[in-house]
Specification:
By secondary structure, this protein is mainly alpha-helical. It has five helices and no strands. The chain has one domain: lambda repressor-like DNA-binding domains (434 Repressor (Amino-terminal Domain), Orthogonal Bundle), CATH 1.10.260.
């Protein structure tokens, strides 16, 4: 399993819950749809600024998204080193 799957799945779930597609979210946060697609496909990392933009549209805390990304980064390194990934990932919470 791709260690970054959990972050990207969380983003996809948040978009689905809001009834939004990639193009709609990209338009709302004023970025090219390809940039969002690259994050969803694990091709590029999410910046804090991008996380804040997603928070404003999806209602998911940027801090949680970036924390998930950090956990995913650590899991990816553990996999590369042949170590067992034994920690969990923080749960998503909607921003009120």
């Amino acid at each position: 399993m791709n260690p970054r799957f959990r972050l990207t799945q969380a983003l996809r779930d948040a978009m689905k819950n809001k009834g939004l597609r990639v193009n709609q979210v990209a338009r709302e946060i004023d970025v090219e749809p390809t940039r969002l697609s690259k994050i969803l496909n694990c091709s590029i990392r999410m910046t804090p600024a991008f996380g804040l933009k997603l928070e404003s549209v999806l209602g998911v805390s940027a801090a949680i998204l970036l924390t998930m990304q950090a956990f995913d980064d650590l899991a990816e390194e553990k996999v590369k080193l042949g170590q067992e990934v034994t920690f969990g990932v923080p749960r998503l919470e909607l921003v009120s």
